[in-house]
């Protein structure tokens, strides 16, 4: 491979992501058109990586990058995480001080997660999967007989925990429902929330005042078991809890107790242990929509990662700023505790 | 019961609807406050009805009202259908010529149907009830493994068949998805559709150009089996068909063939025969969301009927026009072929 | 002219409207294609009108139609007002009892009025025409110096008086501003307003709680001088009053007093006497945007009347209901007191 | 002044901005509550500034900060520009390499500019300030007589040049108008534009296909005289040009020629020389709305700068990332050529 041309060099080592999941053939061709791509997906060991590191303009993936190694990457302008979680195997402080853009792809999933969350909320409101199961079992109830607990989203009170990409994308989808939307996000000043038409509220008020509660918070030390037993007890009788992000935020034992007691309904997409044990008591609950971690990982989301990478590297090669991937905040990049998806 | 007071007389004979399903205690109290209500729900026979007919200001329900009987209702100003379908047991022409408002409650269901339709569409797009069933059976697939066919609603092509109350309510909910929305409604001039941002299109174009197709058409002689085999063959491979209104619009044999062949996915809420036979081959199809006629009949919809009745009778008693119930069109009231729900 | 063909006959006598203002050549051609049009715009006297009346399917315009004359119009199905105001020269009750659709074109103006009203509001908020005048006089002030009173629409409190076509069209345009919108309309039950996200409020609350107040009310006996001195005194210091419809609703002497005193700002498009007298003291007020009755009467609005007429007559000739023009309410048609525009 | 407490030190030297224009008393009190504020607004010379620099956590303003001076600012975490334009008196590269957040306040103006731009567009569409002037001169024309050129915004074609904060804020306000919106921004990949429902287009297509064109571009070497004579000739006859940002983008001689010829209409808020010369030929043009650089600088915008500063410094003092002010892009901060407002 001749990497001595004038094209900037991009090192591609996407693990635990996979090249062909995020790049369509068209996107990969566009990347090769503009860059000298050193594709190391199938190359074990560090030798080739270290050989090309000094000439790298960008790295796609999240290989180990301590300060020493970063010091050798003298031309490096961008470190692009294509998996969604920032691991501690990179010396981010060193990267920032060297002027390396640390870019993440979290926003690629937000439309998918928002649509899925809305679908789960309507399912909880109306019992769609419950009666689909009933029709398959021959026990369905017609017309209003299975609608005794059904409620509208229209003009309902809504709570959103966490107002990052996911929460904002969801909020946009809720516009036509004329909800009263309370938002709890301790990393945001109230004005950010109020400018979008939401109500900045504390956790207690958000939980106790909302018929629908969406959990879309990032896992950090601060948010661990944010929803413990006492917090869950604040939920209204018959509330709908949509639990999409992240399992670490919730005490599942406390959650199970309250669901067994029929206190509220829940749709659950994330689990403390995945796969969920076969004998998990959640599996048989009638007031739950069960979902095996499916909210974000769809083909269009993966492909948008590849397109974002190509678009932003193209801009950066022109001397412009990236606009699609998200710049990691130096203040926050060490706080995230999301586990990588395996 | 003394009905000789100055309050206008309202005859209440809501069958096949039920008084306590549509009137909350508060709404019923408000009705009694303003009107002398002759409640005939539990009074069999016509004697009492005919006795009070000459003094009736309004009738709630749809008792037999031929021209002769209407001629006796000299003070009648409103005939209020609280069930949703106009039966041919009323001489509507005679009612119109006598200046009687014929009012329907169809719009009471439209928000409920629109939300349910959107929920079905997201379910079809993302396999929510399919994987809920899988988790209950212990056969779920995690993360992207069960997402191979998943698609976004965002920026998808959408077709809506029928643009009455239901179609318009749904269209409003779709605004944040930035869809290209084609609408087929042969009763509407294109300008009505285009003013809402939709594209007025023919049936063929709507079916063949849309990833999501919502069937929200009224059953009439013209729309019977609108979706027959050749029409269904226009759908794209992998299209999502949301079938909510009305069963008469679709040829279910042709539909079954194409679903068995895996041509597309469908969510079905209305059925040619209800209850659906236990051995119906639809019950086992993996690419279908099964729903036992549940889209509209929820408590909030029923209660809104009662509120609409009270609001509009209040206006009419003040000499104003009704604004919540829908005035039946003389041109159309004989065309509807929806069967009453039993 | 041979009017004995099978095509339905339409009598066209549009005064005080003019044929060529509402019908584009294309629309007029479409009308002639489907109907035998008896064009009486330039035919004085009643002879020709009365000769064709017995065969008329529809009348476009508002000629004198007493009960006797209507009795001769045995085939008449539609009486289409193309000017905007219902005059008392028609026996509307007789028309209704004969099953004649009485249709109005008021909605043709609503988008134009809504956009103009929003433009006036922004002008009042930001002083656009004031500083345009200043630049023409060489007395402008730059940057923030002329912005001391400037306010945002974003998140402001808004009041709308009258929630017919005009008010609803305006409300839609306000969606992105995240306003708190209070609506006063005594002909509507609160639920109609609340379903749109507005707050149903009384007149006093609407006036005293709103930074921007839009007057879009119909003139009736009830609404005459709705905004008299005491009502205007409820407005906040510095409020913005957008007065578009109708002059009869406001006491202009009281309004002048308060504007001279600098209590609030106003944009005024309707006037008790038009043309406004040359020495009207309104003409020199700095806190007023002056407008000579221009909100609705633009070419696109006029042309949409013609298109609505063609669309609805086409539907009615097919036996369907009209959907674009508005059916006059028998209860209300006699209440309007708007003067025709001359 | 005792700055030895544990509170982080903030140096306040806001020129050319003014402290009391951006901080309300409440905001200033909040700033003092959390920080040791060294207020240098009224302190000439560098002595005090240099004395406090080594302990500064943040600097509000844009004093000269070469690499040498920055090297002394060992605790500096944020350099906050509160005027809107980045001057070249700071060694931004040095700041970035030291991990200093360089934050701008441009977004504070975007709602004000967007609302003003919409107001100008409606004025151009409807002649509001033109007829306000006519009424003051006694030469107004009533009803449709002054509306011959009036057009709706509804469903019009729209072009936006520049899709930064200003363009996006405007685009949100246009949602209810159902426009076809073409957007030209050479710094953005098409996907960013298309995700918002816009059409990513080239300059020529945007100019030639749009009835309304909004100029909201940043001044850079690339955008200088973007709208020269040949570009302006692409505009449609009768187009509406809203020119808000920046004067350097337009060739005003070429613009004047075309306005004198009546080719199109324009609203102009920015000028190559301000104040505009008294004898400027623009001042007398009837097809122009004249505005003395007023789009952004309103009280609410200025106060939001102060609130953004307090909010973000509060977050940063907690170890979190700023979310309201905009992080300057290292790639772009040297490119801007906007002159400071004097």
Please characterize this protein's 3D structure:
4 copies of one chain form a homotetramer. With 342 residues, chain A is α/β, with parallel strands linked by helices. The first copy, chain A, folds into 2 domains: 9-105 and 299-327, NAD(P)-binding Rossmann-like Domain (Rossmann fold), CATH 3.40.50.720; 109-290, NAD(P)-binding Rossmann-like Domain (Rossmann fold). Chain A has 13 helices and 13 strands. The first copy, chain A, has helices at residues 19-22, 25-34, 47-52, 67-72, 92-97, 110-126, 128-137, 165-174, 190-194, 203-208, 229-232, 252-260, 299-317, and strands at residues 9-13, 36-39, 56-61, 78-80, 101-104, 157-161, 180-184, 199-200, 212-216, 240-245, 265-268, 288-290, 326-327. In chain A, the strands form 2 sheets. In chain A, strands 8-7-6-9-10-11-12 form a 7-stranded parallel β-sheet. Chain A has a 6-stranded mixed β-sheet with strand order 2-1-3-4-5-13. In chain A, β4 (78-80), α5 and β5 form a beta-alpha-beta unit. In chain A, α2 (25-34) runs parallel beside α13. The first copy, chain A, starts with 8 loop residues before the first strand and ends in a 15-residue tail after the last strand. The model of chain A has no long low-confidence stretch (mean pLDDT 94). At the A-B interface, α6, α7 and α13 of A face α6, α7 and α13 of B.
